[in-house]
Amino acid sequence: MDTDTGRDTADGPGAMARPAPPGTPPTLPVTTRLALPIDAPAIAAVHQASRQATMPYLPPQRRTHEEVTRWIREIVLPQCHTFVATRGPELLGYAAVQGDLLDQLYLRPDVRRAGIGTLLLAEARRHRPDGLSLHVFQLNADARAFYAHHGFRVVAIHDGRANMENLPELTLRWTPAPEPLFPRGTP
């Protein structure tokens, strides 16, 4: 398990976009797509900025931007189904799914609580409709609240011996609700 990545930073529950003041030109919509190798430097920048802003309890980052970019390009993109959220040319966040593990979900700190984490999580769920698991540091209260709001439940508690930071973490799981059974003849 590689938790040196600082897993599971996301926007908060009930996130809503704030309306622009009158007279403000309209902004481009946020869209999602599969990540491309050319996105690696921007994904690395989001990863590093998010980790630094949202997890101050972690030790200082030891890896350079170039090293994180190489990790994204050579490890994350080839091994994970990775989605990015963009607004025009700006990369706002990313989510990486490996098997049924949501291994990464990071947002630029300046776009948190605008529904972008929810959008990326929805892409991950579409990719893994039978369920997702993830690991989150116990200290990451914002991420824990975000995932609880989206139906994830604690399935295991770990003391931190298995991650590079030696911080206690939780394993969370989302399993879709069963489809309701309607009586025959019900429209």
From TrEMBL:
Residues 19-28 have a biased composition (Pro residues). Its EC number is 2.3.1.-. Keywords: Acyltransferase, Transferase. Residues 1-29 are annotated as: Disordered. SUPFAM superfamilies: Acyl-CoA N-acyltransferases (Nat). It comes from the Bacteria. Residues 1-10 have a biased composition (Basic and acidic residues). Signal peptide: none annotated. Residues 30-173 form the N-acetyltransferase domain. InterPro entries: Acyl_CoA_acyltransferase, Bact_Acetyltransf, GNAT_dom. It is an enzyme of class 2 (transferase). GO terms for molecular function: acyltransferase activity. This is GNAT family N-acetyltransferase. It comes from Streptomyces decoyicus.
